Amino acid sequence: MQHRAKPITVIGAGYVGLVTGACLAAIGHRVVVVDRDAGRIAGLRAGRMPIYEDGLAALVAGEVAAGRLSFATDLADAVPGSSAVFICVGTPPRPSDGHADMGQVMGAAAGIAPHLAPGAVVVVKSTVPVGTGDEVEGLIATITTTQGLAVVSNPEFLREGVAIADFMRPDRIVVGTGDPRAAAVMAALYRPLTERGAPLLVTDRRAAELIKYAANSFLALKITYINEIANLCEEIGADVGDVARGIGLDPRIGAQFLKAGPGFGGSCFPKDMLALMKTGQDHGVPLRSVETAVAVNDARKGEMVRKIVRAAGGSVAGKTIAVLGLTFKAGTDDMRSAASLVILPQLQKQGARITAFDPAGMAEAAPLLPGVAMATSARDALAGADLVVILTEWPDFAAMDLAAAARAMRAAVMVDLRNLFEPETATRAGFAYRSVGRAARDAAARREVALTPVRTGVPVLELS
Description:
alpha/beta; disordered C terminus; 3 domains; six-stranded parallel beta sheet; elongated; Rossmann fold
């Protein structure tokens, strides 16, 4: 099929750009991924991934070997002749006002403009504020007189940890354009996916830009909601897991994003909610639910610190805390807006000594968490600790031998902020156990610890 042979350029070898480029190659296109970071491109050419994403290294290696994927640092080497040029660069929040920083997007647009071939489609895949497509189109028009160009919005919906699966089996592909020819180019580009059943929604450009912000904010609202319900569960003696299952079985609600924990983080939800909130304010349409969710999520980290301190008997001063998990979620090395970046420094300020382990995020986390000792394994982190905190839901932690973990610690106290374990299981292993939104079951587990002799020889602190 000829449409699969047309060259495509992807600007940005970060999370979205690299996954997008590799996956476009995997569905049959010839793709050049361009990044101005020469070291990153050299690493990719040598097979070194700049990010941790399951399956990505193998996918990139396979597509490079097949001749469908290559890397470059010079736009002039890649953009001419491309039927589509994807802009996949970062849009971090501006410290001054929370708005998305569009410097990289506009810089990419200016950089590609002189090299665009007639009829090329510029695809903005970065998460951008409503109206960005208009600005990109206007900027390109001031730089080049090349005819037939089109600017399209094509937001990404990739979840870190399962990004390749999300791209290859998407629940929807959104294309924002009023140009029928550009819509046809995008439909042809994604035909290998739509032929397998992926829905393609073609809408106007501004609606497509808003869809991404609205979707992420809605999911974050679900997380915030279940965390507040978890707080209520702890007071009334209900189990938030049962509540979440009960409401998640309603097809109008759904079960996803109803897991109580330390709050949302990562590269998308926090910045996208701030950007949407700011957009609403700028247009005189305050989004009160979004504003409240942001405030509640910020406060959530402090609530988790207080939970940890209570579990430690009211003070963490001079105590050693083992922290398992540092990244904002499992399956990634991403530390952006991770709960650990707030919770651990607050514990340190109260006098705690912290030893941490994360299966993938140690290199990223170490410079961001000064004073935190990085262990070589979960077992090393637990050795001699007074308390362990489960902060990220890595499967390795869920599978660990709890009895051995309890024996390794000075005092077998666990604060499970991801509800990885059943309270009864943790208790039988010798732990005084606290989790999120399960106060009644935790209390029963603590009573069992107080009434049953512990045979491991490990001193156990009864929680008040």
